[in-house]
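Hi, here's the filled form for the chain we discussed.

Project: internal
Contact: R.S.
Residues: 677
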Amino acid sequence: MTGGDGFVSRIDPKDPNIVYGESQYGGIVRLNRRTAERVSIKPVEGKGEPALRFNWESPYIISPFSNTRLYFEANRLFRSDDRGNSWTAVSPDLTRQVNRDLIPVMGRVWPPEAIAKHQSTTTYGTLTAVSESRKKEGLIYAGTDDGLIQVTENGGKTWTKYEKFPGLPEVAGGMTGVYVQRVYASKHDVNTVYALFNNHQNGDFKPYLLKSTDKGANWTSIASNLPANGPALSLAEDHVNPNLLFCGTEFGLFFTVDGGQKWIRLRSGLPTIAVRDLAIQERENDLVLATFGRGFYVLDDYSALRTISKEVFEKPATFFPVKKAVIFVQDTGKSRGSQGEQLWMSANPPYGATIYYWLKDALRSKRQQRTGASRRPDPNAKVDYPTQAQLTAETDEEPPQVLLTITGPDGKVVKRINGPSQRSINRVTWNLRGPAAAAAGGGGGFGGGGGGGFGGRGGGGGGARGGAEPADEEESPMAAFSGGAFVVPGVYKVSLAKRVDGVITPLGAEQSFTVEAEAEAQVRPEDRKALSEFVTKVYRLQRQVTGALESANNARTRLTAIKRALPDSSADTKLLDEASALDKRLTSILRALRGDETLRGLESGTPSSIQSRAGSASSGVRNLTGAPTGTMQLNYQIASEELAGVQPKLKALLDELKKLEAQLDALGVPYTPGRYQ
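And the returned structure, exactly as it came back:
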């Protein structure tokens, strides 16, 4: 956007087309995305004033009280009320005003001619951090690279300087001069402010994270158990729970639920990397991380962290509050076109109701328990070798499972989902759909194809594994042909249980959550009722069609084998004629069910079969939120009537086939599939 290395970008909170960005030494620009106009808005000193000193990464913010007001830092703080068109200095020089050229390096002061003394080396005596309180307009904190925090409560008319901070290395006169990495005014309390100091340039890699509850007059360290070898680089305060803080360090992300008394490492796929910036998307409760490697990570809906405590972790299992889920139709197109590697994008959050639950003890199979016990730290520890009976029991064991059961507003079970079973805060997403018309992999399928679905952990896919998908996957484009239809809006409940050795044991209390329809859908209640009733009917029809096709296809396999086996036997040739006659009748039945294969691909078109009509109606309701269309109802009616005419013929044929196979058994005809004496 701005060239150079690029630094912080900020977006106007009321007009997303207005974006600010900067390059080195205060090179700030304003971009209008509507017109592609870029305007340099870097402030300058007034006539006769000393030159401004800008940090390599000059801080700036948009005021929480006005979307057109900016604060920008050099060695003075500037304010603009017109998006940077004009600036007013609202402070004097807020630094110690130390001459960087006289600072000893490697034990001596170097002359101007020294190599790289004035090339690609940052200036000194600059402002490095700024924050305005949400709770009070004009309460602004400014930090410097030479260890000062300056505070104004009146928009810059007067300033108070603080230069002593507990736990920081001292310089001459008992003062501290450690680089102020960040300052953050609390979202909750007008008197509370946080400050991060970074002393790595002096070979000190300790994390310095301080908190003041009196607007900076007194400070207390809350770094507590943060690793001693990684500077604290960024901080975010939860907008609901003031004791929930996130801290980005040189070697990863940490959080605390007690205001900094104890920090816990947050991994969840995040590598060991410097987390340079943090932001919270408050509507979605998402934590956004920016790393030193120019990567972005998003922790979707961290709200479960607000309620964790020692008491929670002592329970065998517990649910965390479930965020309201909204039914809408996803656009699953990837929209990559021909952009190739130039298009950078990440997967959307999982679709549906995301459920978090705590498990105190992991569920492990007998084999996992045995192998885990054998991996002892002591290499000389005794290992009990399993018996053959134990090994057989391990092979035959049904793996232990965590089951989540979702019930609807009427109290009936809507869905059962297999969830992760680790000792952890686990996550699974229900895709807001009921059961599929046919199980995954069913031969009937929709519209002539196979059934099926994709599942796992997260939300979207549907039928294969309880309507759950990995949390980092978007719904597959093929999902339109698998899984069930959307459920109706209302209050749902989820309960947790474990299944071990076939025994189901409830775990913890159930959790209620709300499912709503997308506001723009504007579907009438009577249309939702009509859809729900139609889904029940059309899915019953789809199951019947699938069953008929499976039975007919199975009969075709059996008859084909019989016609091959009879010539190699001494049986009467009349039996071969009987098998051929059955096969011809079966061909007629299959054509009624799935259409005439000889006509497929002809330009003249193929009449709709029972399968195609049922499949069209069944797949059509999957992404429907209103009443079924007239075409869907017509397809259902015709398919139902035609299937009613085929079913007696198929049953009669299957009965005759069974009698034929009994004759083959009596005559000793070689084995064919389906026969069992």
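Let me know if anything looks off before we file it.
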